[in-house]
Amino acid sequence: MIHEYLHRGQQHWSKLGIDLLLGSLIDKKVTSEQSMFLPDYLMKGFDSASVLLKPEPQALSPLVQSKSALYQPPVNELTMPWFNPYLVLTVFSILLLIVSFLHSTPPSKVVLIDRSLFFITGLLGMLMLGLWVFRQDTVCRDNMNIIWALPTHAVVAFFIGRNRPWVKTYFKVTGLLGALLLLGWPWWPQELNNSLIPVI
To answer: Do the Cβ atoms of 144 and 24 come closer than 8 Å?
Structure first.
């Protein structure tokens, strides 16, 4: 429901942030009453509401007797701006692949890039986990993004390039988790942001 407003307002980066930090519980179907925190749905609720004038015999009257538009906003054509999350993350991922596989790139720089990416991803996972555990409400719980943004990445980042056998095993496990996440992308209970596909 919120996505509808973000899409109309072309708030693609805000949508990405919401999809990253909020969990699967907010993707459940809501009741008519729960939907009325949004203006359009509140208006529809008032339009369909009735007032009980007297119980016997039952007499109902529409709550809204008349309507008038005080302001009619202009209708803007929805276009995808060039600076959108999907394009930016796709270009970023391609550039990283090119730099990583170029023979002219020193191995030390490749290791530094990998460590930085894993550390940042791990910090993001820690933020997701913290919101999941410590928030009193439930909007950040059951966040499936933590499958690819594991908090443990922040620790493993310091061991990349040190030829530790367990690090290779860790990469295999996380690679498998990422593959499973992508394979089940359309069917998971949480609506994951498509802009994250190039990163995963």
So the answer is: yes
